[in-house]
Amino acid sequence: MGNRAVITTEKRDLGVYLHWNGGRDSVEAFLEYCDLRGFRPPDSDEYGWARLCQVIANFMGASGLSVGISRYTTDKAMDPGDNGIFVIRGWEVVDRVYPYAPFEEENEYPLDAMLLEIDAAQPADQQLGYFLRAEEVPVANIEVGDVVYVRQVGGRYGAFPVVGVGDGRVVNGVDTAGVPYVNMYSEYMPAEDNANNYLTTPTVRRVPKGASA
User: What superkingdom heads the lineage (predicted)?
Assistant: First the structure.
């Protein structure tokens, strides 16, 4: 009995076995959580396997045979039944090896709710916390005075106020025209002179006005 699955990459060198929570809704949540934490994925860095297993094992606990890792042999030999095999590129599922046909993907757990459960199972000093509850909005909608989450060196997110909008100068390769910036790094130079302060992603998570980050 179980809700089994195996996660591997297109290279098919290693496989992570899940005895429980092997449905696509859970697997994609584990992958998304690793992405939000800023972990390097298994197909680009072998430490990615360790971080993925760490997140899943923290969620499942240490009892029984809930999580395993082994060298990958063949799809047929590695197929655990239940949910089959998930093939990932980066932190996304790009292919599936189904255990049987017809097969209906599990879609029971909403992603946002699953991410909160995964986060709560991690050590307190590694949790994303309020970041997961913050509103995700286009950077174009951000205004001076908003408080937003920005990924810091080391992968952690911090909440910082938006203190200005770029004037069009190129700062360390970043075209700042119309781009909001925060005061994350402003100890040794003005905030607008550090490219790492600019919000260059399409969206950003914004703390609701009046809420505590």
Answer: Bacteria
| pLDDT 10s digits, 41-96 | 999 988 999 999 999 999 998 776 789 999 999 999 999 999 999 999 999 999 99
Token pair of 34, please?
Answer: 């690793």
Please give the C-alpha separations between residue 164 and each of 5, 145, 178, 193, in angstroms, as whole numbers.
47, 8, 9, 11
Amino acid (1-letter code) at residue 194: N
Contacts of 169 (CB under 8 A, 6+ apart): 176
Distance CA 35, CA 213 (A): 21
Nearest to 21 by CA among 67, 73, 77: 67
Q: Give pTM, 2 decimals.
A: 0.84
Structure tokens at 45: 């860095």
